[in-house]
Amino acid sequence: MTRKILITGGAGFIGSHLARRLLSEGEEVTVMDNLFTGTKVNIYDLLDNPRFTFMLHDVTHPFWGQFDEIYNLACPASPIHYQRNPVETIKTSFMGMMNVLDLALKTKARVFHTSTSEIYGDPEVHPQPESYWGNVNTLGTRSCYDEGKRAAETLCADYLREYNVDVRMVRIFNTYGPSMHPQDGRVISNFVMQALHDKDITLYGDGSQTRSFQYVDDLIEAGMRLMRLDRAKLDRFFAGRGMTVPVVNVGNPDEYTIRQLADETLRQLPASKSQMVFQPLPKDDPRRRKPDITLAAELLGWSPKIPLREGLAQTIAYFRGLQ
Amino acid sequence: MTRKILITGGAGFIGSHLARRLLSEGEEVTVMDNLFTGTKVNIYDLLDNPRFTFMLHDVTHPFWGQFDEIYNLACPASPIHYQRNPVETIKTSFMGMMNVLDLALKTKARVFHTSTSEIYGDPEVHPQPESYWGNVNTLGTRSCYDEGKRAAETLCADYLREYNVDVRMVRIFNTYGPSMHPQDGRVISNFVMQALHDKDITLYGDGSQTRSFQYVDDLIEAGMRLMRLDRAKLDRFFAGRGMTVPVVNVGNPDEYTIRQLADETLRQLPASKSQMVFQPLPKDDPRRRKPDITLAAELLGWSPKIPLREGLAQTIAYFRGLQ
Fold this sequence. Notes:
Two copies of one chain form a homodimer. By secondary structure, chain A is α/β, with parallel strands linked by helices.
């Protein structure tokens, strides 16, 4: 039977991939977005699908609708965007989550919440398992995002324990692919855009800090599997591991240094005249982040399939098409 | 000139002490409280003061008023209370803070926010300086309080940086004294009530975990001094220490084991027939917490003055009077 599905932030990078995937599986999809960082361009091909609806609305204001599932993706995720209006960022994260959970409570919708590796902050444990509590500054310029996302997780845990809302969380690690915002400010879009425009490729610090890069299709696959799991099975799985809240890391554990990423970008764009330049490391920048995906493998039989080389080629093709 | 002052949560333990102190200094005081854990009993002696107003209102709903200063104390602070409705607890912390800051932004009120040592969680650094980021579980049963308070700090930091709201924060460590809730569930009220009623004195674990206990008058004195500081001086002080947000630990660094506290309680109540009993340590219970108050000493010329023996005697006298 066709499911009615709401995606908050559905005109964003990840949300639009999710909408496309769910439509391809025959579901009825409503995308809610305030178009702050999301854009109609990302969902333009979906607008004439009779099973698709776009709803211009800000998730911080209450809303109503009868949905079987709600995917909560609404929140600017790149520092360049979320620091433009920090108060709005933390409000989006917290009040958006609250509105989603309130609606789910009243309509018995299943909730998928996209948390983030940022809740681990600057981790002292490597790689990070779901049981790691994180190392986050409450007062820094990244806090509006990090603490907003931490408080959203707490809301999920409490709506689950207090009201039995069927909520499932993923902590997403660095994800990239077509439909990324070209001025996203994060490393893959930066490097590709710089290389395409023959501009200097900017590395912070000495470029030896590592990141893991997950191609967006791998993330969507994990999310689909998590949402299709039977509730009783899910509860047993987590209870057996001493966890009261279903949360799984979803990311690609292959580590690359920022320098390696720059090298691979230039290798794929041999005509580029770009040079690498080095700048000081910004304050509060996490030095190292890598998911422990044991739990996702056990629960979902999932692991990332798309290597950086291949995903990067797709992403470069997308950015080239924007020109 | 008389200041107009709002205290959210002003019918609670600390809020009522603050109201009394501000009235004694000639200020005009409005106490807002939803009376969830606060009680009219705490402010009964103030009700006929023409400079005092009580306002029955829940801080999670917007409100309006022209005040020179707002003291934000609204939030149940003991696990037994804040875990009764965890969703409401985190909402109180986050939305209450947002409503206070929104009002302050529009009316140019100075804001005093009571944060908490709970934002340090189960600390891996001892004692805890303001620069310590904390070790908090986002998904535990204490998270509604801890993460709510962390997010409230972030809101303060962002309203200050983004809108220049004059906000000053204290991170309060364990505080006790007359007007504590007798069923507060925390250790001092537990021990005194148990000893007064000849019931077993319950220690968790082996009682070797330490706590620092601050008498309420010491806290109020620190708060008064912080709020009377000139803004420019305050900014210089923190900027000189590489901090963008004024926050100070306020607590008593004298450490006592829970066992020592039980001994002192029984020493002061020699007629009590209570016996000590030992129970397993609850999950997520912080093992050790002690403030580093260097910053408060330098900024406010303040240190706690009232020893445990004396404060405990006052508290016992109060609880005895309730019988």
